[in-house]
Design goal:
Elements (H helix, E strand, L loop, with lengths): L9 H14 L3 E2 H8 L3 H9 L7 E3 L2 E4 L2 H14 L4 H9 L4 H35 L11 H12 L13
Antiparallel strand pairs: 1-3, 2-3
Length: 168
């Protein structure tokens, strides 16, 4: 005699159908990738890294709600600004209230300081390149710019090269 099993997966399917009616149809990973211009591997990576909620699986395939598109666009925006994924994860952890705004300001202030230092360094490199472009040095060892840089390195061998410190 066969026993009747009442707790089969149909309840899960019913829940998914009810969720689908509320949230709209779920998108495949390929559809999401196409809408945001990412590879599917990047989306899987972001999911594994905790930047995206785990996708619902239907027939073993990932299915996403449309709000994941906005989240991916936000991740990409933050990456273009140079933020590390760990910082983006912190921002996405609790997206409401005053805490994210304060965290955003802290991250932006730190990034502005970093960018300021990069700009200063780039200006130093640009100045050296412009001044040395028409240099009359016969060899690199006779170049006054290179000699100053080497002297600087000998005084502080553990410091990285800082072009903005070199003075003509």
């Amino acid at each position: 005699m066969l026993a009747l099993q009442a707790d089969l997966k149909s309840s899960t399917i019913d829940e998914q159908m009810a969720t689908s009616l509320v949230e709209g149809p779920r998108l495949t990973i390929g559809q999401v990738a196409g809408e945001v211009g990412l590879r599917t591997s990047a989306i899987r990576y972001y999911e594994d890294a905790g930047l995206l909620p785990h996708a619902v699986r239907v027939g073993g395939k990932r299915r996403y709600t449309r709000d994941v598109i906005d989240r991916l666009l936000l991740i990409r925006f933050c990456q273009r600004l140079g933020f590390a994924l760990k910082d983006v994860r912190r921002l996405l952890h609790d997206p409401t209230g005053a805490r994210p705004k304060q965290l955003w300001r802290q991250l932006v202030d730190a990034k502005l300081t970093e960018i300021g230092a990069l700009i200063e360094s780039a200006r130093g490199v640009e100045r050296i390149l412009r001044e040395s472009r028409d240099c009359d040095c016969v060899t690199l060892s006779s170049c006054r710019y290179l000699r100053r840089e080497l002297a600087e390195q000998r005084r502080a061998p553990t410091r990285p090269i800082r072009p903005h410190l070199v003075r003509a």
